[in-house]
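WARN no homologs supplied; continuing
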Amino acid sequence: MKGIILAGGSGTRLYPLTLVTSKQLLPVYDKPMIYYPLSVLMLAGITEILIITAPSDLPLFERLLGEGTQWGLSFEYAVQPKPEGLAQAYIIGADFTKGEPSALILGDNVYYGHGLSDLLAPGNLCSPGATVFAYRVNDPERYGIVEFDDGGRALSIEEKPRAPRSNWAITGLYFCDERAIEIAANLKPSGRGELEIAEVITAYLEWGQLDVKRMGRGMAWFDMGTHDSLVEASMFVQTLEKRQGLRIACPEEIAYDQGFITHEDFVNLGKKLEKSTYGQYLLKVANERA
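OK structure emitted
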């Protein structure tokens, strides 16, 4: 399975912060925003990842992330000339996925919770078909909303409804088989002028091959599309890291835990950043696990 991170768009809702840089490069407490969705793909065991971004931001992502080899990963890059909907990521990434299943994650999403790795394990994903994740929200009109029947099965999905049928939002993580590309390629722009990801997911729903997993109270999800949500996510990360002494969404540590890099690689990554508290944390972890 291959991974796609959609980090395009102009981030207009975060102006003036995003007038000079990509939203997905803004800090979420102690690390760039894109580290958080990247860590989710890594926890799912995915090592080949396509990063889609705006043309003007591409050099910035390449400077930050490189080819991914430092974390035992392989990065490729593609541009989204004009934001035309989330489903456009499948069209842009068609050559990259080459008929394989893929995990698409939005570059401004944070996931956290005990058991997240188990939730993302291949054995828990619908195959053939698609698996998405729902999270209860107070403002459902801002999201794609899934309606469930009494047995917990998904009945319908609607993008940013005026009259939501539930409070369960579809989060920005989509595991789909190879048919997602064909579905997206045949979509027509919605009334909002976008290729809607909800229509891709609805196709799997109509085939009876959609698994919607509800994230429980022990899990957290942030969609950082506003100034308030950006601050809330940063404060959440700060609180957990200070209380536990552990870092959230640390690619170096995840790469080591997943066996993508060796202990020596891990130590060297820490040494490169040792003047920062981030690098000191890496060296501390490396020493504890020596």
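The two ends are 31 Å apart (CA to CA).
OK
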